Amino acid sequence: IVQGLTEFLPISSSGHLRIVPELFGWSDPGASFTAVIQLGTMAAVVIFFWNDLWRITWAWCQDAWRIVKDRSTKGERSSDDARMGWYLIVATIPIAIFGFAFKDQIETGARDLRLIASTLIIGGLVLLWADRSGSRTKGIEHISTKDGVTIGLAQSLALVPGVSRSGATISAGMFLGFTREAAARFSFLLSIPAVVLSGLFSLKDVGGGDGLAVGPTLVATIVSFVVGYAAIAWLLRYLTSHTLVVFVVYRVALGLLLFGLLGANVIDAR
User: Fold this and answer.
1) Of 38, 53, 203, 267, which is the most buried if we count CB atoms within 10 A?
2) pTM assigned to the model
3) How many angstroms separate the CA atoms of 172 and 129, rounded?
4) Would the CA dihedral through 26, 252, 41, 34 be positive or negative?
């Protein structure tokens, strides 16, 4: 339930999956468990945006074949859907590189609750800045290669728990002038390749070591799919007529609460 609710809301799913077990006295399920159950929320994205994804994939395949056949990108102009496919690929490259390079640090030191509390607060303030300063005039059809690279770099920051993948990419989108809804829509589409690759890479660790067994992991993945689908539908409707301030307040309040609990030795940072 926590994964499904927080994957798409800009409040950090990985941070919450570290915080909630600590508050309830459960053992930390680990980074691999977190990565695998994200496959459930990614299934929700795929089904919710199925028509868009099918159209983008088909257009991209045609465009890629045209480039291979003609051995040139000149001549016929790529369609909006084909370009979207290229932008999603380009924007995924940064998180793939950084995720592989810093895998060990992400699974150990990055799960420190002091770091998560800090990134929750800082990320919330950045989200507020983006929400207040962005022009919010561009639709998703106006995205460019530069926009894709910038949002992709922002997504790589979410390798640190507490940053929030959706929060970072939506903030970057609004800084670039996109509407809240357009930034969120591209953020959701962009999440698919990154999270699927991460989840598949971590499948080998399910049931091993101190992690949770296959059965509980499967249950968590299914539940995250159901809750995640509802969260996508709600957030896209919400952003058509509301600001992101409620998420900013929540992030800052949660970060301050964590610092208070850590300072009082109620919970352990590591």
Assistant:
1) 38
2) 0.84
3) 11
4) negative
